[in-house]
Design goal:
By secondary structure, this protein is mainly alpha-helical. It has helices at 2-24, 27-46, 51-78, 83-92, 94-115, 121-135, 139-145, 150-188, 193-224, 227-238.
Length: 239
């Protein structure tokens, strides 16, 4: 039971810090909305370009991911961000994100080709998606908190999950359920079509930003020590 109580204690600490950082840097949530708009605009412009257009959309998405990770990292490190951070972020982790995407693309292509020889290729694809979700779940945090890249990043992510999976996954699963409920609640408001999508995007942006902050703080806590160390710290706090 001590491991459970120690985990809840860490959740409480990370949650308290998340609320503080989130409230003082709310514009970052609007950046999430801006990323969606940018990617949609690039997709529209690049649509006639065929495979080259697809490459441009992918690069734009990677740049937006890099920017968001950089903003989250700055909020955690410094407690604040500025417009320069937004601009700098588009290239800060671009190489790491592109490398990771390339590795996953190679793996997905291999699985898809192998699946064509099996009786149920959809099941193979679903299994691959689940494996990637589990193994690479902490990779976003590892990109800006470690110096690993490519295959090493995935290998270290797998090691982190096998060591800390019980503590890591519950907040993400709960947040996913909250996001689904939030989107459904916005739909039930009966807003005009022109307002519904923007309101949903802002609401989801606020949630994604909060979750990213919490996950980053939680990753730092879990990566710093093992389960026994966390229990020891928890017991020490109670004395």
């Amino acid at each position: 039971m001590d491991r459970l109580f120690a985990t809840l204690w860490i959740y409480r600490r990370c949650g308290r810090r998340t609320v503080e950082l989130w409230a003082h840097n709310l514009p970052v949530a609007l950046a999430v909305v801006a990323y969606a708009v940018v990617i949609a605009a690039v997709r529209l412009v690049a649509a006639p370009l065929g495979w080259l257009g697809g490459l441009l959309v992918t690069l734009a998405a990677c740049a937006c991911c890099s920017s968001f990770l950089y903003l989250v990292a700055q909020v955690q490190r410094l407690g604040r961000v500025n417009l320069y951070d937004l601009q700098r972020g588009f290239t800060a982790y671009l190489g790491e994100v592109v490398n990771l995407g390339f590795v996953l693309w190679i793996a997905a292509t291999a699985v898809r080709l192998a699946g064509t020889t099996l009786p149920n290729p959809r099941l193979v694809g679903l299994a691959f998606t689940v494996v990637v979700f589990v193994v690479a779940n902490a990779v976003p945090e590892m990109i800006y908190q470690t110096h690993h890249t490519g295959l090493r990043l995935i290998a270290e992510g797998y090691h982190f999950i096998t060591t800390n999976g019980l503590e890591w996954f519950p907040p993400t699963l709960v947040a996913s359920a909250v996001a689904y409920a939030l989107a459904a609640a916005v739909e039930m408001l009966g807003l005009p079509a022109a307002l519904q999508a923007p309101v949903q995007m802002v609401a989801i942006g606020l949630l994604v930003y909060a979750l990213a902050l919490f996950r980053g703080l939680l990753f730092a806590e879990l990566a710093a020590t093992g389960s026994r160390g966390r229990v020891f710290r928890y017991r020490g706090r109670r004395r």
